[in-house]
From TrEMBL:
Domain Thiamine pyrophosphate enzyme TPP-binding: 384-521
CDD domains reported for this sequence: TPP_BFDC, TPP_PYR_POX_like
Taxonomic lineage from the root: Bacteria, Pseudomonadati, Pseudomonadota, Betaproteobacteria, Burkholderiales
Region described as Disordered: spans on this chain: 168-188
Protein family (similarity comment): Belongs to the TPP enzyme family.
Organism, scientific name: Comamonas resistens
Protein name in UniProt: Acetolactate synthase large subunit
Length: 523
């Protein structure tokens, strides 16, 4: 058994059985091992940022890491944008990156690069396997790191000679005897700010906010937060960017903080203290002239109930105990919105209502509709129960790859990818993978033929009115993109819609049909 085969066995022994791949020459022995050994689902992406984005989406739904297979430093570099998003989302991923042999590195061949230097900014752990005897233990450590709480990016460089060398007999069973990966244990039952939190909720609940993030936004966490709100009258909000939020009818409604600085400041102005439950103190996404970087009111006090390393359900349950709230029905339960027939021209508000009225129960929504979708949060709060995933790092080209990973993690569920035309062009190759894997993904592309969000940002930062050159840099015309044609060329059925009636019918047809489809919404 060679090193590559040992690594595949190690990954499988540690319950890692999905690998998103874009391999090259240095990885051919690992490819051969994946071919020879049963149990690993291998999913090809036509660009490395599709691969890494899919691994991010997979983790958010499966709650366990997948592997990526990347070709040397340049291949890893191509995937860094979505690794950035994954790191901000605290997703666990094991990157397997092929490398030259030690002797060939000395020759400085064209693809020689500093893999550790490339990996480090987006990885929590980077390691090169020095000899074939270490491959099993190194692979097990990579899975352990990625599968901890919170999830982490573990990057393992696999030199070609380590992959092709035979593992000595004495080391061949190492992969079977290593301890399996497990999540970190929960933090202390009583947080350091416990007494101050209790006092704030009892004495001044109207000026106290529960700010939920990370795993606190699962249904079990929001249910407990709703009970605390019912007992005290405190407010509940979620961070704007959420790795996975379980929401919709029958669940506690937790509004996300606004993206825009002025709206965010207004939303937080009345709170003298904010209790953090897996969340961070809210800040503006960018710096703007004469606007604050922190969105909270001056002098606001932050109290920590739980961090992403902790179990938020345990912390919130303890708070319910202290407030005698367990017996109370939760506040802010969303009621199912009655289905309504919508007609007329396409507007962001109308689109949001159509999405809410047609969404199947347990859909996974992956949202990167930056210009059109800002108001979708409030408009879909009373839709059927669903999960809502957003890019946590702001690197665009997230939604389509993440939809691929989510669909592979939960093949029984429909995935809805909401994507802008500018963002979608970063990772349009995802459509090919959707077709190849017959994934149940409905992709909606909002076509405004511009980087619409940047037109707004130009004014927001005080850069003045755009002239011809600036307008050209922010426009997607000359020529116009044909998303339906692009989708069909990659095996995905597509339709163009120009009003709310046709959008409704296109969504319903897609939801009732297996496999992927694309809806091109043209304003």
């Amino acid at each position: 058994m060679n090193g590559a085969e040992t690594l595949v066995h190690t990954l499988l022994d540690h319950q890692l059985d999905v690998c998103f791949t874009n391999p090259g020459t240095s990885e051919m022995h690992f490819v051969a091992a994946l071919d020879k050994i049963d149990g690993m689902r291998c999913v090809l992406g036509l660009h490395e940022t599709v691969v890494t984005g899919a691994a991010d989406g997979y983790y958010r739904i499966a709650e366990r890491p997948a592997a990526t297979l990347l070709h040397l430093g340049p291949g890893l570099a191509n995937g860094l944008a979505n690794l950035h998003n994954a790191k901000k989302a605290r997703s666990g991923i094991v990157n397997i990156v092929g490398d030259h042999t030690a002797s060939h590195l000395a020759l400085d061949a064209p693809l020689t690069s500093d893999i550790h230097g490339i990996a480090a900014p987006m990885s929590d752990w980077v390691h090169t396997t020095a000899c074939v005897q270490d491959i099993a233990s190194d692979g097990a450590e990579a899975v352990r790191r990625a599968g901890a709480r919170p999830g982490a990016i573990a990057t393992l460089a696999l030199p070609a000679d380590v992959a092709w060398s035979e593992v000595p007999e004495a080391h061949r069973q190492a992969h079977a005897t290593d301890s399996p990966a497990s999540a970190d244990s929960a933090g202390d039952a009583e947080p350091r700010d416990w007494q101050a939190i209790i006092k704030a909720l009892r004495d001044e609940p109207q000026s106290t906010l529960l700010l939920l993030g990370d795993r606190a936004l699962r249904e079990s966490g929001t249910l407990l937060a709703g009970k605390i709100a019912a007992a005290t009258g405190c407010a509940i909000h979620a961070e704007f960017y959420t790795a996975r939020m379980e929401r919709g009818a029958g669940r506690v409604r937790v509004p996300r903080l606004p993206y825009a600085v002025d709206l965010g400041v207004a939303a937080l102005a009345s709170f003298r203290r904010i209790i953090l439950v897996g969340a961070r103190p809210p800040v503006a996404f960018f710096a703007y002239p004469d606007k604050p970087g922190r969105l909270s009111a001056p002098g606001c006090e932050f109290l920590t109930l739980s961090t992403p390393q902790d179990c938020p359900e345990q912390a919130l349950s303890g708070l319910c105990d202290a407030l005698n709230a367990h017996h109370l029905p939760p506040a802010h339960i969303s009621e199912l919105q009655q289905t309504q027939s919508l007609s007329g021209p396409l507007t962001p508000e109308g689109i949001g209502k159509v999405l809410a009225a047609t969404l199947p129960a347990q859909t996974i929504v992956v949202e990167e509709a930056m210009t059109t979708g800002r108001g979708f949060d409030a408009l879909t709060a009373e839709a059927a129960p669903h999960d809502w995933l957003t890019s946590c790092g702001g690197s665009i080209g997230f939604a389509l790859p993440a939809a691929v990973g989510a669909a592979i993690a939960a093949p029984e569920r429909r995935v809805l990818a909401l994507e802008g035309d500018g963002s979608g062009m970063y990772t349009l190759q995802s459509l090919w993978t959707m077709a190849r894997e017959s994934l149940n993904i409905t992709t909606v592309i909002f076509v405004n033929r511009a980087y619409g969000i940047l037109r707004g940002e130009l004014a927001a930062v005080g850069a003045g009115k755009p002239g011809k050159r600036a307008t050209d840099m922010l426009s997607l015309d000359r020529p116009n993109l044909d998303w339906s044609g692009l989708a069909q060329s990659m095996g995905v059925s597509a339709v163009k819609v120009g009003n709310l009636e046709s959008l409704t019918q296109a969504l319903l047809r897609s939801y009732s049909s297996p496999g992927p489809s694309l809806i091109e919404v043209i304003f």
